[in-house]
User: Which sequence fits this backbone?
């Protein structure tokens, strides 16, 4: 098996597959309904009860025997005694004696013997006796038990992303908790002696730490959990010791993935590269811009190991790499049915050129009304201000060297 | 001013405006960057520093005076002494003496006197002296201070929804916290004597509480905060006392909106209706299906008051009403630039009929590839199992009575 550097640059797809392969499918955990939003259902959800659980009234009105009202009309009302009052929630519903009706509220159980509901609007709303001015069809305004679902039926299949309607359904069939796929936990490392925490004064030559903060947010937006470990030691042994300590843990903060940005330049002292090279993490190039220099692997920490993805340090490179490699891997690991960003076709407003042999991701703003996309900023990988105004990435294939105004381009939607 | 019931049914737009008018714009609070995801920026964000803050190298290589290398080539390399080693983060960068170069890493400050970077690949990578085999253009591989943004420039405008790139940008310009619009707080009430908590045994005539759970999740998915108050007292005075206690609070759990579902049937004893009628909350009809019976207003609680929206009790009616009235109102209140769900046009797969005079929202599944939408389930407002399989609402105008196969319909996207 040739090494990455021997084999030459990877395609975006090849490196995405390599990163995804580092993460196995996450296991199952049980969460209360209120915490299930956005989670992926781990097992099929079947109905513990039928819905509705019993025949019930679709209207406020009267439960009747339809045959007894066959001739009722405005001009020939039928008057019958009201034998019972049935609010919703009444659990001791008496059977309907022939020749009587029962006052009934929406959702209340239809009494045995009744076969139709007459809406209150078709009556004089009497409480002792009631005058009914319309002849109901048998079955009118009765919601049958099991009409929505029968008991035991599969309501949602494993892999469904849970939102308000799905959680409401689980509640409706009596489930207080749901089995969902565990979120991967990502340890985001911020390394670099030039970095200063936001809010602190900046010396000449220093910049504010932003990649770690940005990537931790991006991890959470992908549905995983993140912990940002800022300003880890620049000493290789101490750096490895910090990772070994985390990777050998057994709690929920044991990382499924360690994510770094920067620190992998050629030639210089770089803690990330020095601590990982030769220990299971490979570094190489991906034929893309921005984001060429990448690394990934399972870092051997002596007795334990942890999956690692190293992203380049320029903020735009870092975020584009996250979008291309890490986000889909995290979502696939937790069983998300759509790990990738939605991709749409749009017509380019303006012109773009792109180097041959490298897939380019340019920052864009999509106008959904006209179906056009315009570049924001330029190709420079340090232009985070432009990145922050973008809502999509314009995906230019490796073979593309120019795109003319109005030509179609593929666009990754970032804000959905 | 005529009352709602005198004026006749409201349109969806009229009732949406009435609910939105109950909620004033929320104020501003300051949150750490890590908590800013999904929040709406409350003030323009300006750059505290330029980006980049200083001229820096775009490559690992050597900082040079371009004029001194005018003739350098593979066949005629130029050798110069390496006067300094400049890693990223070095704050005491000496000026470059004529006739020397400085070894420099990506991101490190370009020394005074240097005007270009020669990438390490165009050299022998020497550390004492270096042989350079290419003549750089002045300015090559130098990222100029302020190229991305100048200090003081407005980077993001108030109203921007914050995600990873925007939060990364705030960090990059040194901001540890951001001013964001406060989330509205919603108190979701679950009322009804027929309701049983999921997980408990069900008696005949009882159903599981699901609307409150579903609506609380929907509120949080809209970006607001929710507290579910289950099984509130059925006694009108105690019910009002519970609300007065909450509404007169000053903490973050003081509700901006009280949301109820069900409990407003005509004719029967209904705590919500009885506690609110004549105290500032109006009940009436909206010309829509599902979700006709609605109510809203500012509930006078004697010395205090609170905004209330009452939704119908059938689960589908409840969720559709939330989508049509409450979600856009909550998002508008927190300054979201796009309060409404995205609406697209799709061709109907199959046929639909709809009653004249009522706007219908049917549950659908959109096939984005073919641009078609198919109904899930039927129009029945109790069919929550079908609702849970839908990813959109098919919006049929009041005047529409039938839609033929292949005709365009408006579709509200629920899962974005």
Assistant:
């Amino acid at each position: 098996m040739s090494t990455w550097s021997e084999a030459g640059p990877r395609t975006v797809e090849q490196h995405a597959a390599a990163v995804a392969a580092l993460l196995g499918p996450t296991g199952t955990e049980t969460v209360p309904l209120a915490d299930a939003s956005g989670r992926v259902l781990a097992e099929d959800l079947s109905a513990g009860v039928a819905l509705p659980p019993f025949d019930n009234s679709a209207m406020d009105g009267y439960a009747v025997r339809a045959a007894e009202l066959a001739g009722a009309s405005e001009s020939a009302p039928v008057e019958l005694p009201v034998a019972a009052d049935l609010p919703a929630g009444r659990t001791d519903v008496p059977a309907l004696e022939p020749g009587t009706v029962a006052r009934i509220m929406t959702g209340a159980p239809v009494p045995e013997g009744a076969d139709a509901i007459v809406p209150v609007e078709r009556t004089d709303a009497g409480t002792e006796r009631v005058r009914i001015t319309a002849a109901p069809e048998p079955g009118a305004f009765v919601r049958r038990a099991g009409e929505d679902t029968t008991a035991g039926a599969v309501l949602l299949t494993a892999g469904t992303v849970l939102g308000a309607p799905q959680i409401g359904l689980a509640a409706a069939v009596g489930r207080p908790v749901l089995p969902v796929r565990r979120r991967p936990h990502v340890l985001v490392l911020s390394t670099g002696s030039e970095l200063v925490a936001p809010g602190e004064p900046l010396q000449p030559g220093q910049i504010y730490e932003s990649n770690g903060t940005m990537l931790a947010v991006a991890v959470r937006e992908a549905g995983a959990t993140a912990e940002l470990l800022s300003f880890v030691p620049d000493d290789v042994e101490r750096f490895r010791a910090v990772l070994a300590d985390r990777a050998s843990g057994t709690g929920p903060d044991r990382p499924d993935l360690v994510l770094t940005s920067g620190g992998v330049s050629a030639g210089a002292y770089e803690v990330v590269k020095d601590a990982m090279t030769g220990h299971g993490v490979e570094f190489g190039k991906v034929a893309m811009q921005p984001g060429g220099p990448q690394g990934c692997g399972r870092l051997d920490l002596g007795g334990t190991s942890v999956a690692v993805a190293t992203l380049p340090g320029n903020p735009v490179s870092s975020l584009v790499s996250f979008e291309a490699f890490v986000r889909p891997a995290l979502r696939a690991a937790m069983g998300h049915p759509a790990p990738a960003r939605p991709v749409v076709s749009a017509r380019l407003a303006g012109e773009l050129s792109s180097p041959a042999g490298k897939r380019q991701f340019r920052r864009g703003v999509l106008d959904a009304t006209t179906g056009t996309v315009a570049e924001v900023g330029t190709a420079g990988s340090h232009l985070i201000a432009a990145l922050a105004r973008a809502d999509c990435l314009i995906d230019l294939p490796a073979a593309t060297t120019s795109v003319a105004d109005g030509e179609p381009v593929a666009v990754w939607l970032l804000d959905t």
